[in-house]
Amino acid sequence: MPTPPLLALHGVCKRYGVVEVLKDIELEIHAGQVVALLGDNGAGKSTLVKVISGVAPADKGVVEWEGRAVHIKRPHDARDLGIATVYQDLALCGNLDVVGNLFLGREIRRFGFLDEMEMERLTRSLLERLTRNLPDLRAPVVSLSGGQRQTVAIARSLLANPRVLLLDEPTAALGFKQTTEVLDLIDRLRDRGLGVLLISHNMGDVKALADRAAVLRLGRNNGFFDVNTASQEQIISSITGATENVPRPPAPHESAW
Amino acid sequence: MRKMTDNTRTELATPDAETGRPHPGRAVSRVVEGWVAAFRRKLSAGELGWLPVVLVLAAVWIIFQSLNENFLSPRNLSNLSVDIVGTGLIAVGIVFVLLLGELDLSVGSISGLAAAVFAVLNVNSGVPEWLALIVGVLAGTVAGTVQGYSFAKTRVPAFVVTLAGLLTWNGIMLAILGTSGTINLDENGLVAKLTSYYFTNDAVAYGLAAVGASVVFLVSYQDRRRRQAVGMPHRSLRAIGVRTGAVAVIAFAVAYLLNRFQGLPLALLIFLVTVAGLDIVLRHTHYGRQVYALGGSVEASRRASLSVTWVRTAVLAVSGTMAAIGGLFLASRITSVSQSSGSGVLLLNAIAAAVIGGTSLFGGRGTTWSAVLGMLVIQSIASGMAITDTPTAVQSVITGGVLFAAVVIDSLSRRSQEAHGRA
């Protein structure tokens, strides 16, 4: 392999009490690629995102960043590495305005006080690159539309110039037009060389956008696919667990991609 | 009252309006139109802010003035302005806790404890007043910190932790006071002066009013210049002028009234400076932003890697400290400390003041100025009742009604805001 993947997981396990949510998970994310993470409800997709982002650290297993092993114990660690996450629930503070949410936890200060002007200026220039209908930057986020909130959440994750972006169902709550806008946005991020992990239930989105797909089933890897060559039926049967009936079984390991 | 003029934020300056020489009357009316438009938008979004409490205050003043013409006399208003300080300072601490969406029930006991610590050290043990004062305030800080840390670590709701605190601190206060019962403070001492000293020189009140208005102007103007320099939307000069004018009118009116009695009370000055200072802390510092964020969503704050434990501890520490300072002002007002210090309706009034002033019970919305407005309403009702010889029973019922109305408005505005957000 010429260059190691940006992010690689080997044998990652996670339990909540007696429930084994993730078992021996393998995953690789390369720069400039969109990896779709697929699986039925409860397959462990969101938990895997939490493991990578440090919200719920792994119990066992190795996380490699550009080929060297790292420990992600807190959200802070992931952020320092260059991993940004957009959660399914967006994790925005509804009472804060757009600027406040974007810079939450990394406010720009001037003489010890918040530099609202500089933060507003950066917010404006960032959002102008991402979207055409700019929301009112000083309105509380609770008063924005779903698509606008999604844009704010993605913008926030891009603020620290991440190398890897984790997106947990970014289009689930959006209408057709807003979905297209978000997918375009992800496409442009890939072109800029980011590694993207995209969780989605929508096979259309995955087919249109992803380079590769990793399927989780009941907390385990259940196949890796090249989205351009694998058929939709193959992927879906892997998600639903009907793989035994598929003539050619999916590759069991990363190396077989 | 910064809140009042914040509505002009969205009013953008246009280039031709800058160069032209507008008619001053029309300029003002355009700014007012901007306010009306902003107000309509906020009304439909369920953000009423300061408006309900100002209307209630106006109604209370009109009613009592029509019942007794001495109500709005300089003497009564001056006394009112001192009476709001003790409980008002406690209410400022409550605002911090409410912003987290929590409640602090221990502030009454802590205020009594701080006053008792001060009185016993100073009067009984002969410790210098300044030192006893510092120890008294620190007692409140420590009590608040202990509660805050327990709340943050155990994740038991703050109202339960502080309910335990209410009993504990009250017990400790009784133990400290011992059998002596009431301790009288030095009538000419430092603490007594806190509420009995007036700046009798007229120039002080007017001078400070001028300073306040100038600060508002300079800060707005500087902000405008910085924004203009990088081509960002900024307030127009006339918006800044109207804003400064509004502050100046209020400040000079208050100064004029106070000077017609005994001058500016020291207590009121300390109160206003504290409220303004803590308002800056809440709205313009990293710490304050964290408090609002936690009130908005704990989970989102955690994921933004805020230290939830630290912020929660610090908020209850602030609340304990403010309760102690308020307790010393209350003791100063009656120059004595007794076993009943910090008991009774004090706690309820402090919480009611913060809520009536517009701080949300659900967390994340409100400013320290709501403590001032809320206390003005509560104390105006109390004062008006006293002046018109109305029984205390009626006073409680009316204050209760105002509080209920405030909570209903808070709840409705929150619901309409959510509905608006989903639209």
Q: Please provide the ordered H/E string of secondary-structure elements of chain B.
A: HHHHHHHHEHEHHEHHHHEHHH
Helix content of chain B: over 70%
* Spatial strand order of the main sheet of chain B: 1-4
Outline the low-pLDDT stretches of chain B.
Answer: 1-22
As a percent range, the share of strand residues of chain B is under 5%
> Could you estimate the helical fraction of the residues of chain A in percent?
25-40%
CATH topology of chain B: ABC transporter involved in vitamin B12 uptake, BtuC
Measured between the Cα atoms of the first and last residue of chain B, the distance is 32 Å
Structural class of chain B: mainly alpha
Protein name (chain A): ABC transporter ATP-binding protein
Keywords (chain A): ATP-binding, Nucleotide-binding
Organism (chain A): Streptomyces aurantiogriseus
Pfam family, one (chain A): ABC_tran
Task: Describe this protein's structure.
The complex is a heterodimer of chains A (257) and B (423). Chain A is an alpha/beta fold. Chain A is 32% helix and 26% strand. In chain A, the strands form 3 sheets. Chain A has a 6-stranded mixed sheet, sandwiched between helices. A 4-stranded antiparallel sheet of chain A has the order 2-1-4-5, with helices on one face. A two-stranded antiparallel ribbon of chain A has the order 7-8. In chain A, a hairpin with a 2-residue loop joins strand 11 (212-217) and strand 12. By secondary structure, chain B is mainly alpha-helical. Chain B has one domain: Orthogonal Bundle (ABC transporter involved in vitamin B12 uptake, BtuC). Chain B has helices at 2-5, 15-19, 24-45, 51-67, 74-99, 107-124, 129-154, 158-177, 190-196, 202-229, 237-259, 266-284, 286-296, 298-303, 308-334, 346-356, 369-387, 392-422, and strands spanning 183-184, 198-199, 264-265, 336-337. In chain B, helix 5 (74-99) crosses helix 17 and helix 7 (129-154) runs antiparallel to helix 15 (308-334). In chain B, 46% of the residues are buried. The model of chain B is unreliable at 1-22 (pLDDT under 50). Classes of the chains: A alpha/beta (257), B mainly alpha (423). Chains A and B meet through helix 2, strand 8 and helix 4 of A and helix 10, helix 13, helix 14 and helix 18 of B.
